[in-house]
Design goal:
CATH topology of the largest domain: Rossmann fold
Oligomer: single chain
GO biological process, one term: negative regulation of RIG-I signaling pathway
Catalytic activity: ATP + H2O = ADP + phosphate + H(+)
CATH architecture of the largest domain: 3-Layer(aba) Sandwich
Radius of gyration: 27 Å
Helix content: 40-55%
Strand order of the largest sheet: 3-4-2-5-6-1-7
Main location: cytoplasm
Organism: Nothobranchius furzeri (Turquoise killifish)
Number of domains: 4
CATH class of the largest domain: Alpha Beta
Distance between the termini: 70 Å
Largest sheet: 7 strands, parallel
Shape: globular
Number of strands: 24
Subcellular location: Cytoplasm
């Protein structure tokens, strides 16, 4: 394998895979898991009759990255390769692509869609594949798309249906599944092994070489004391108290401390309860309290002005939309306090001390004339934009030569990045025109980011897997991994817990690896049988829930003003993705808002304008219109913006799949016949 350029520890971990076994390769971030997978794929293609390799990834940007950086340079001259994602035209004839290529790299969703699609050109069977490589395979659990694919595999295996592909999983850590005892952590690792029908392998004989090639950064806890006074935060809490008194919190419900994630959960429950009980005052007050709580959380992590601006932005959309006395009170309360809040937010005496600590951490690493690269991890897209604004306006950081930009996940929203924007940002970072990425968790896992001198976790509460992957980004010699947190704060506690869970994961894997083969395989089969049985029970429950009511017996209400605007029977499922209202009378209940601009084009449809409730001054955003195959505009309804009136009472659901009635498939021909009769004259 020397001609291929594998390290000895990589050679060690691929041995069982080369013999055709199902294997999970466990190596740390930067340990070269993907390169090991390329080697296994190469040997498989060379030695297996009618070989068909498929590489699954869980994020769109990894399709191009694995194709361009790993598989195509080594295999492209000898084999036919293809890359397919949701943006690719090839997804529409994926079955044909699989037939004609030797190796396909795609998102897991593409394969799963093909497995359940019965059209000839689109359908793919697991038996069509001879080697299935699953990147970041620790995500193969619960209802993830990885696990849906592997559950099909396990079901066929238990029924002795062959052939089935060989499985090769890749992970930096399977984690403990949130468990804190060794026995439970072992059970979690065994469950991941069962889900992937694989053994887990790691280097035993070449640990020193691995440590040399993947050095651990120096970890520092950069602690700040709680600020002595916080008049801005106190004012926010005083306003929240006024809302508590006005909303009349039910006596059987106790709100927890303001400015916490627990409080956010409480007010979300109160909003749902207000909708169910037809209590608009309770529901609307809860929505506004969530915004104030969000401002408190921002105030705890970022600048006071960032918190103030988040509230100002929220209320700028509410000022002209007073539907009743509740809205008048809530908007008026903010307006009465707006000037005072702004004055407090601009008083530098009470600024968040975490910002000063973050500045000193960055200045320790970034100095003029020194080549440094760093990643600053933060929780939300909003916080990355606030931190970017702070960095670019901070004189000391600019004089030190910090050249920052934002890296967030791909998507269609205004704050999302396109795949090209992500690639361009990383390219600039690699070339040195940028030296600091301000990133959400998107940079923790998978992305091909150069070695960094500094990784900072700021205002984050994540599990041990995310922590390990973030730490693994600091790969340069003598690099630093900094945790900026308040003394005794939740981030600090979580970091220490994650350190413990990382050790626990290693012990759990060692224990699984030391099990006798017979015991391991028996346990794996037991867990597989249990998982398949549990899945069938869950599916039966979902089907039963779906059939709870006839669609025509469910009214759809605006979640803000509670006006009935549609029937469940008006809604149809378009292309297994979009829930559209086909009733032409529905347009009487909404007005068009701004035109929707998406960052990518779709083959059969294009967006129109947003759809907004026109009942008085309600102005609740419901979704957006779609123009499908030259049809009339179809309102695409987001269920989270509605309430459902059922024969047994009112309810709310987050996703359409949780609605208690069956939604029929959209028939374009039937729709045209009923609504566009001129086409059939």
């Amino acid at each position: 394998m020397a001609d291929f350029g594998l390290y000895a520890y990589q050679e060690e971990v691929v041995q069982r895979a080369l013999k055709g076994e199902n294997v999970i390769i466990w190596l740390p971030t930067g340990g070269g898991k993907t390169r090991a997978a390329v080697y296994v794929a190469k040997k498989h293609l060379e030695t297996t009759a009618n070989a068909k390799v498929m590489v699954l990834v869980n994020k769109v940007h990894l399709v191009d990255q694995h194709y361009n950086k790993e598989f195509e340079p080594i295999l492209g001259s000898r084999y036919q390769l293809a890359k397919v994602s949701g943006d690719s035209e090839e997804k529409d004839f994926f079955g044909k692509v699989v037939q004609s290529k030797d190796l396909i790299i795609c998102t897991a969703q593409i394969l799963y869609n093909a497995m359940i699609n019965k059209e000839e050109f689109k359908h793919v069977e697991l038996s069509d594949i001879t080697l299935l490589i699953i990147d970041e395979c620790h995500h193969t659990h619960k209802e993830s798309v990885y696990n849906k694919i592997m559950r099909c595999y396990v079901e066929k295996k238990l029924l002795r249906q062959k052939p089935l592909p060989q499985i090769l999983g890749l992970t930096a850590s399977p984690g403990t599944g949130g468990k804190s005892t060794l026995d439970c952590a072992v059970e979690h690792v065994l469950q991941i092994c069962a889900n992937l029908d694989s053994v887990i392998v790691s280097t035993k004989n070449y640990v020193p070489e691995l440590k040399k090639n993947v050095p651990k950064p120096m970890k520092t806890f950069d602690i700040v004391e709680k600020r002595g006074a916080d008049p801005f935060g106190d004012r926010l809490k005083w306003i929240m108290k006024q809302i508590h008194e006005y909303m009349d919190v039910p006596p059987d419900f106790k709100l927890r401390e303001c400015g916490t994630q627990e409080y956010e959960g409480d007010v979300m429950i109160l909003e749902q309860r207000g909708v169910r009980e037809n209590n608009r005052r309770l529901a609307q007050c809860a929505i506004h309290l969530r915004e104030y709580n969000d401002a408190l959380l921002i105030n705890d992590t970022l600048r006071m002005m960032d918190a103030f601006r988040s509230l100002e932005e929220f209320y700028s959309t509410k000022a002209a939309k007073a539907f009743d006395g509740t809205d008048i009170f809530l908007v008026g309360l903010f307006n009465e306090n707006q000037v005072e809040l702004k004055n407090l937010a601009t008083n530098v005496v009470y600024e968040n001390p975490k910002m000063a600590k973050l500045e000193s951490v960055l200045l320790n690493q970034f100095t003029p004339g020194v080549q440094s690269k760093g990643i600053l991890f933060s929780k939300t897209r909003k916080s990355t934009h606030c931190l970017y604004d702070w960095v670019t306006k901070n004189t000391a950081l600019q004089e030190a030569g910090v050249k920052a930009d934002i890296l967030t996940g791909a998507g269609n929203g205004n704050t999302h990045m396109t795949q090209n924007e992500q690639s361009n940002t990383i390219r600039r970072f690699r070339k040195g025109s940028l030296n600091l990425l301000i990133s959400t968790s998107v940079a923790e896992e998978g992305l091909d980011i150069p070695e960094c001198n500094l990784v900072v976790r700021y205002g984050l509460l994540t599990n041990e897997i995310a922590q390990q992957q973030a730490s693994g980004r600091a790969r340069a010699r003598d690099s630093q991994y900094s945790v900026v947190a308040q003394a005794g704060g939740p981030e600090l506690r979580r970091e220490h817990i994650n350190d413990f869970l990382e050790e626990l994961t290693q012990k759990a894997i060692a224990k699984v690896q030391s099990m006798r083969d017979a015991e391991f395989y028996r346990k794996r089969i037991e867990l597989q049988i249990e998982a398949v049985s549990s899945s069938k029970t869950s599916e039966d429950c979902k089907t039963e829930k779906k059939g709870l009511f006839a669609a025509s017996n469910v009214k759809i209400l605006c979640r803000s003003c509670f006006k009935a605007v549609a029937s469940g029977s008006d809604v149809k499922l378009l292309e297994n993705s979009h829930y559209v209202n086909i009733n032409p009378d529905f347009k009487e209940f909404y007005r068009q808002g701004e035109r929707v601009l998406l960052q990518k084009r779709f083959e059969d449809w294009e967006p129109g304008c947003t759809v907004i409730c026109n009942n008085g001054n309600c102005n609740k955003d419901w979704g957006f219109e779609m123009k499908y195959k030259e049809s009339n505009l179809l309102p695409n309804m987001a269920i989270k913006n509605f309430a459902l009136e059922t024969p047994v009472g009112r309810m709310t659901v987050k996703k359409w799949k949780d609605a208690p009635f069956m939604v029929e498939e959209f028939s374009f021909e039937e729709y045209c016949y009923n609504n566009m009769p001129d086409l059939f004259d």
